[in-house]
Structures are given as structure tokens and as C-alpha cells.
Amino acid sequence: MELHIQEANMTKNADQSLQGNVVFRLEGYQFPYEISFFSKKGRDWDYSLHFTSESGDEEEFLKLDQRLTDDDDLFDALLDAALEQESEQ
Fold this sequence. Notes:
Oligomer: single chain
Structural class: alpha+beta
Mean pLDDT: 93
Helix content: 25-40%
Number of strands: 5
Low-confidence stretches: none
Distance between the termini: 34 Å
């Protein structure tokens, strides 16, 4: 799996919640995607997957979303990329 991080950020809010996003390309997928992360305490993470600049293939999108659910290494790599950019707000 070749993962290319194009952009990443994470912000810690005054209430200690964390929110961030990563724009990335993944080998074998035609389109770049953006994943948004949110956690109230920095332990349990909610995420949302998005197309970046334009809508793409819905089947590919659903395949990637399922892969994020099944592949902890991929999910953790994306989350780690965002956490490395953490800043206080």
C-alpha cells in the first residue's frame, strides 16, 4: 500500500476535543480523498470520508470507506499524520 499524504492538520479546541483532516491519495484508487477526524478526549475517534475537489466514483468511495473500517494500519497512518500536525486553538 502506497499512501501519499498531501495535507494534514489537527486542532485541539478549548474544551480539549480534537478535530482534524488529511488529504491523501492511496495506491489503487483513482481519486484523492479527504478524511476528517473528531474526538472528545483523544481516544475514541469518529471519522468522515469525503471527495476532495470533485465527486468521483461512488463504488470506489464505498470501497475505500470499508477499507478504512477494516484496515487499522491505514486508519492509524492517516490519524497519525493529522496528530503530528496538532496545534492549540
